[in-house]
Amino acid sequence: MMDEVLGQIRNIIKEQKRILTDKADLYSYSYDASFGVHLPDIVVQPKSAQEVTHIMKLANKHLIPVYPRGQGTSLSGGPLPVKGGIVLDFSKWDDKLEIDREDMVAIVSPGVLTSNINDAAMEQGFIYPPDPSSSHVSTIGGNLAENSGGPRGLKYGVTKDYVIGLEVVTPEGEIIRTGGRTVKNVTGYDLTKLIVGSEGTLGIITEATLRLYPKPQGNQTLMAVFDEMADSGKAITNILSAGILPAKLELMDNASITAVEAYEPLGLPTDAEALILIELDGHPAAIADESERVRQVCEAADAKEVIIAANEQEAENLWKARKLVSPAIVREKPTKISEDATVPRSKIPAMFQRLKEIKEKYQVDLVVFGHAGDGNLHPNIIADKRDKDEMQRVEQAVEGIFQAAIELGGTLSGEHGIGTLKAPFMEMELGEVGLDMMKRIKQSWDPNHILNPGKIFPEPGQKLVLSDG
Amino acid sequence: MGSARLAYEETFDCVQCGYCLPACPTYITMEKETHSPRGRINLVKMAAEGNITFSELEGPINLCLGCRACEVVCPTNVQYGKILESAKEVLLEEKGRRSFFQEFVFGKVFPNKKLLRAAGAGISIYQKFGMQQVARKTKAITLLPEPMRSFEAILPETQGIGKRAKFYPAAADHPVYKIGYFTGCMMDAMFSSINTKAIKLLQAAGCEVTVLDEQTCCGALQSHSGHTKVTKELAKRNVAAFEAYDLDYMVNSIGGCGAMLVEYDQLFSEEDGKWKERAEKFSRKNVDISVILSELELPFKHEINKVVTYQPSCHLSNVQKRTEEPVKLLKSTPGIQYVELPHQHMCCGSAGIYNLINYEASMDILDEKMKHVGALKRKPDMMITTNPGCHLQMKLGVEREGQTDEIEVVHLVELLAVSCGIDT
Fold it and tell me: Is B119 a residue whose pLDDT tops 50?
C-alpha cells in the first residue's frame, strides 16, 4: 500500500527531492530532542497549503498516520512518528515573513525560525515577545503547536497570547482560517486558541498572524545572591508584589551554580544556596527607578549580594551564568531529562522542598534552575541512559515531580508539552471526565485518528519510558 | 571488521537539541536533517548499532565539510570532529584500498616535498599527475571536467620556491620569540611567496625564524579522509622535528594545517607511550601567525585605503578558536576600512579537497557565501583569507560572480606585508 501512496505523493509534490525515502533519511526524522527512535515510512517537505490538503486527503483514504514536524527541538516527543507513516517536515517552508507596521502584526509561514520573526520585528521598532531558549533553531509552526513559553513569559505571556489568526489544514484535508488581524474577535468559538497548543493533533498550521509589541526603550540586568533558598523565594514574591514586573526572572540553585563554576570560572558564589537574575525593560527612567527598588527588596530579603550591571557587556556576563547551566550540568553524565512542571508562584518554596526530598529518595542528580518568576521551574535530572538501573530511578523521580506539581495546584507541563512522555499522567491532572472531553474534541476533528496519533492521550497501560529501546 | 571503530560512546553526548542545525552549511544548502550535524551523529550511532549499513552512512559522512562550526554552537560540547573522523576511518577500511589515487596522493605526494615540487610546484599535482585520467581509471573520485576548468582559471601563477634560507635572524638584537616556521605542502607549492612574506613579517616584528628542514606534511587531508595511520606517522615526524630545536613557538599561516597541528594530541592514546605527551607539548606550541603578530608591533609603512572584508578559515575559528586576532590585525592596518561579512562563520565550501571531490555541493555552498558578500552595504575592494584552500575558493566565488576586477582576494599575510613594505 505504501508504494501506491508514494506514487500518489510523487504526483502531489513537484520537486521530487522534497520526498525522502532512503533509510538514512528516514532515520534522520526518527527522533526529536526527547526520547525514542521511531522510523517513518516517508518524509515529505511541503511548501504550500495545497500540498498539505492533498496529502491529508490521501492519508485519510488509506488511514496512514501523519506527523507534522518543525526542526525537531521538542522536549516531549511532539513530532515523533510513533506509529510510522508520513512525517511532514515544515522546516523548509519559510518563504513568508511580513511585518505590517500599521496593524502591528507579522504574517509568517510555518517554517520560519522564531528568532527571525523577532529580528524582523525589531528592525521596524517592534518585538515578538515569546522567546523559548531554542528560538534561534525552532520553527514558529512548532512553537504554535506546542504553545511554547520562554523567560519573557513572566511579563509578556506565551505563544498563545500573540496568535490572532491562523490558516489551518484540518485532519480531513480542508483549509480553514481562524481569527484574523484584529486583537478583538469574538465571532464564534476561539478555534485559534484551540489549535495553538494542540500539539499537532487537531490541525496543521500553514500560516499564522502574530501580534507584535513596541520595542522597549531600554533594559537593565541585576543579579542577587542568597544564602537560603527560602530568602530567594521571598525576594521574588516581594519584587512582584511591589508592583514591579520584570521581563525575566530566572533562578539557579546551588547545584547549578557549582556546576557552572566548575565548567567555566565566572566568579560565582559557590557557597550560595541560590541566585536570581532579573531583567527589567521599559523606559530608561522607569527601569532606573525600578532597579533601585529591586535592589532594596532583595537586600531586605537578606540577599548577601546584589549586582546591577553597569553596561551591556556586564549584563551579558551576568546572563552567561544562566546560559552555561546546560553545558555545565552534562559534563559528568550525558543524559539530561528536562522537566517543566509548573506550580503557582506562592508554592515555589514548597516545590523546592519536594524536589529536595525526591532527589534524596531516588538518589538522582537533580539540578533546579529556570523561570522562577512564573513558577515554571526546570528540574533537570542528569543521568546516563545506558545505565538501566539509574534510568529506572529517574523514571520514578520524574513521576514524583509530576505528583508534587499537581498536589501543589500546578501542572505537568508549563511549556514543553505532553507528547509521548507525559501522556500517562494526563488523567492524574485532568480527571477522567476532563480527559474525555478532550478526547471528544479530538474525535470530532480527526475522526480517523490519523493526525499525530499516539500523543497527549495515553494508550491503555502506557507508562513513562525514558529509554531508546 | 578491522581495527577502526566508530566513536559510538561519543554519540551519547549529543542530546539532539538541534542547536547545530542553523550553523551547518550543508544543512542549509542540502535542506535535510540527514546532512546536519545532529543527523550525522545519529546515523553514526545507528550504523554502530547495525540499524543502517556502512554504505548508507557513507553519503552523509562524505558530504560533511568538516568545518566544525557545529562544535562551536553545541551546548553540550559534543566532539563532532572525533565522531566524523572515526566514521571516515571505518568507511575507508570497509571499502578497502579501492582509492588508489587518494592513497598515492595522501601517502606519498603530500608528505614528500621533492615529489610535490617535482609535480610542478603548484596545483599541477592535479594537472600534471593527470588526475582526471587516474580518477577515471580508479573511479575513486568523481572529477568532472568543470571543476578542473574552474580551478585552472583561478590558479595563481606558479611561484618557484627558489632558495629560501634556513635561518632568519630577528630584526632587533634580542629576538622576542624563537620561532619555527611551518610551511605546509599546498601552501608552499602554490603560495610560497606568502610563506616567505610571513617569515619576513615575523622577522620585522622582532622574532628569529627557523625553517625546519625535517618538517613534513601536517596530515590534515589524510586524517579527514580516514587515513589515520599515515597521519600518525606524519605527526610523529613533525613532533620529532620540533623537539630537535629550541623554539618558543611553531607558527604557520594556514588555518587548516594549523588546526591539525593543534590537535595532534588527539591522535595518540596512552597505548602510544610517550607520544601522547610529546604531541600535547607540540600542540600547545603551535599557533597561527595572526596570534604572534597581533601580540607584537608591526612596522607599518604604507596606508592601504581600501574597504576590506574577511572570510575566516573555519579551522582557524572553530578548531584553533582564533577569531579575534586576524580581525585585530586588519583593523590595525593603516587606512583599512573593515566591514564584517554577514554569516562569516559559515564555511566557503573549500574544505580541503571537498571542492574537487564534491564539486557541485561545494558550489552550492559557495553561492550561498557569495550571497552574503553581495549583501554587504559597502562593497569590499578586498576579501581577506587565512588559508590557501579558502583563498582559492573565494577567488573562484568572485570569478563566478564576475567580480574579479572589483574584489581582490588576498591572504592576510600579503596585506600586512604590503603595508609594512615587505616585498619578496
Answer: no
pLDDT in the model for residue B315? 96
Q: Which residue has the higher pLDDT, B270 or B64?
A: B64
Task: Assign domain A2-89 to its CATH architecture.
Answer: 2-Layer Sandwich (3.30)
Interface residue B60 vs chain A (CB under 8 A)? yes
In a domain, B158, yes or no: no
Distance CA A56, CA B333 (A): 61
| CB atoms near residue A95 (< 10 Å) | 11
Contact A23 B39 (CB under 8 A): no
Residues B314 and B375 in one domain: yes
Give the domain A218-327 fold: Alpha-Beta Plaits (3.30.70)
Q: Cβ neighbours of residue B273 under 8 Å, at least 6 residues apart? A: none
Q: Do residue A24 and residue B34 have CB atoms under 8 angstroms apart?
A: yes
CA distance B206 to B209: 10
Inform me whether the pLDDT recorded for A411 exceeds 50: yes
- What's the order of all strands across the beta sheet hosting B382-385? B337-338, B307-310, B382-385, B408-411
Look up the CATH number of the domain holding residue B63.
Answer: 1.10.1060.10
Would A2-89 and A333-407 be classified into the same CATH topology? no
Interval A221-251: pLDDT, tens? 999 999 998 899 899 989 999 999 999 999 9
DSSP 8-state symbol, A85: S
Which among B251, B259, B215 is positioned nearest to B389, based on CA atoms? B259
Minimal-distance CA residue of chain A relative to B56: A24
pLDDT tens profile B49-66: 999 999 999 999 999 999
Partner residue opposite B75 with nearest CB, options A17, A45, A327:
A327
Task: Examine the domain organization and report whether B120 and B75 are in the same domain.
Answer: no
**Partners of A219 in the β-ladder:** A281
Assign A459 a pLDDT band (cuts: 50, 70, 90). Answer: confident
Whether B311 and B414 share a structural domain: yes
Pairing of β B249-252 and β B286-288:
parallel
Do B15 and B127 belong together in one domain? no
Average pLDDT over residues B128-146: 44
Is residue B160 situated within a structural domain? no
Q: Answer yes or no: do B146 and B184 share one domain.
A: no
Which residue has cell 553526548?
A: B13
Domain boundaries, chain A: 2-89, 218-327, 333-407
One-letter amino acid at A63 equals L
Chain B residue with minimal CA distance to A29?
Answer: B33
Domain count, chain B: 4
* Residue A425 DSSP one-character state: G
Based on its alpha-carbon atoms, the radius of gyration of chain A, rounded to whole angstroms, reads 23
* DSSP track, A193-205: HHHTTSTTSS-EE
Angstrom distances, CA of residue B249 to CA of A13, B25, B209, B220: 58, 33, 10, 20
Partners of B22 on chain A (C-beta within 8 Å) are 113, 136-137
Both B56 and B137 in a single domain?
A: no
| Nearest CA among B317, B199, B299 for reference residue B253 | B199
- Say yes or no for a CB contact (<8 Å) between A326 and B59: no
CATH 3.40.30.10 corresponds to the domain A333-407: no
Residue of B nearest to A335 (CA): B15
**Helix B54-62 with B80-95: angle, nearest 10 deg:** 130
State the Cα–Cα distance between residues A379 and B200, nearest whole angstrom: 58
The reply to whether residue B76 touches residue A330, judged by beta carbons under 8 angstroms, is: yes
- Which stretches of B289-349 are assigned E, i.e. beta strand? 307-310, 337-338
CATH code, domain with B207:
3.40.50
- For residue B119, give its domain range: 100-151
pLDDT digits (tens, 9 = 90+) for B330-366: 999 999 999 999 999 999 999 988 998 899 999 999 9
The CA distances from residue B262 to B66, B180, B296, in Å, are: 16, 15, 22
Here the ipTM equals: 0.94
Is B260 domain-assigned?
yes
Query: Would residue B31 count as lying in a domain?
Result: yes
